[in-house]
Amino acid sequence: MVVSRRSFMLGTGAAIAGAALVRPGQAAAATARGSGSWLGDAVLYQVYPQSFQDTDGSGIGDLSGIIERLDHLQWLGANTLWVNPVFPSPFTDAGYDIADYTSVHPRYGDEEDVSRLVAAARRRGIRVLFDLVAGHTSDQHPWFLESLRDTTNDRYIWATPDQLPDGGPLPDQFVASPGPRPGAFRMNYYATQPAINYGYARMHPDEPWREPVDAEGPRTNRAAIRDVMDHWLKLGVSGFRCDMAATLVKDDPGWVETGRLWSELRSWMGRRHPGAVLISEWGDPATSVPAGFDGDFYLPVNGPGDGAPWRSLWRDQPYFAAAGTGTAKTFVDAWTTATRSIGSGGHTIMPIANHDSATRLADGVRGPEEFPAAWTFLLTWPTVPTIYYGEEIGMRAVAGLPEVEGSAGRQENRTPMQWDNGPQAGFSTASPDRLYLPLDPDPDRPTVAAQRRDPDSLLHFVRRLLALRKRHPELGTQASVRVFDDGYPLTYLRGGRFLVTLNPRRDPATVAVPDSRLSHARPVENRGVRVDGDTLTVPGFGYAILDLGR
């Protein structure tokens, strides 16, 4: 028998011997956020618009397609839609190189379609989040084109010829000017993405191009980003997922000035648009939430251990793998530390996959029998769950696809949504050669239609868990969690009532749970778990949610 190695509690509820107890509000006070507390009850559904639904036969998804498929989100139980960029762009980075912050690229529709999307989603109880790419623009953005013509324009980070090495290579991250302005500019990710100038936290004599955060250019840019936010919030979006949020102010130890910048934006938004939320692509909730964000994603990179909490679950010798060589301890420890830091001021957000991670639960290694245990964790742990389109049916990451619009290897999980067994899987009426990316070629690829017809499908399982989470606050973000074992099987008590145990490895595992209610527990979901006294025996790929009563 595997005896519990770790037992502790976070959140509300009675303390236990040796337990760590954190109550809402006990940690450092959060920045004022208006009334955006709805995020704690959110289930995010991420749509990569190019690949979700095409309604005009172009082979590329559009806003009308998202509207057409909102009933799927409502039926599933997702209540918040996050849409990747739909703005004008030359698409050197799939739309994250923005040429106009306040318009819509014609391939997706127009601004009226945004209004229709927001209204249609609202009728179904769904909020809409847009991406805010505040750190860089496209090199085709009017701001940058103007800076190429005007040497006094400091909206971007420019180094003049006399500030650059004489005959040597350019400084790291700098790109030679493509236009009449001499010198070089600093990029963010691609050379086509010039970094917007928010200043440097520190000056340095070897880099005389640095400007302080209160210089004219940085001040102008902060005001401009407020205008961008204001534009979309007035159209009814409920907030933003903020791309590369930690990178705005350069050379910023501890992200002090970056935090001040976001806190300023958050305070403004709270006054002007109460109820709107900011979610960061940061990867370190203990830093980003006190900086003003309502929530932060765990990511494959950044934050503690450069993304270790996420990677330890899903990718690098992952806990969720049949071999059973991983551990949930890395994640649990990082989440515990973050939760103690942010208290009730914000939320941690957990995806399995996203448009950047180039993976899915169906990654070519994990099989379908492994998926339910992973979903049991995702939808019962007190993080805000995020569903990347297609994960709910077990869509595959498809290797060997061509690079598209700067995908740089990330195209594996950007394939068209698989709605049915009709032409192009119901995604588009275009011919296969015109699709944004090829379909998954597997003839047995999962579809929404087939899984809707099968009550034992993954899709119905996910829907049941979402309904359970909605029905019982004990399974949400605000209730306590007591961890009995962070090995195999991962076993924890939610809200003092629901015992969750899951074993993602192929070999069985046991755990002791010292709770007298166990013998009378009512199974809510159960795949082969046996109760013998205070011991749970969980088969390979098994899981259970047991109601112990109040």
TrEMBL record:
- Region Disordered: list its residue ranges: 406-425, 430-452
- Which molecular-function annotations from GO does this UniProt entry contain? alpha-amylase activity; maltose alpha-D-glucosyltransferase activity; transferase activity
Q: Does the keyword Kinase apply?
A: no
Q: Which Pfam family, an example, fits this chain? A: Alpha-amylase
| The Glycosyl hydrolase family 13 catalytic domain, residue ranges | 46-434
Supply the name of the protein. Answer: Maltose alpha-D-glucosyltransferase/alpha-amylase
Organism source for this protein?
Answer: Amycolatopsis jiangsuensis
EC number(s) given by UniProt: 3.2.1.1, 5.4.99.16
Matching SMART domains: Aamy
A biological process (GO) of this protein is: carbohydrate metabolic process
Q: Which Gene3D superfamilies match?
A: Glycosidases, Oligo-1,6-glucosidase, Domain 2
Keywords, comma-separated and alphabetical: Glycosidase, Hydrolase, Isomerase, Transferase
Q: Which InterPro entries match?
A: GH (IPR017853), GH13_cat_dom (IPR006047), O16G_dom_2 (IPR045857), TAT_signal (IPR006311)
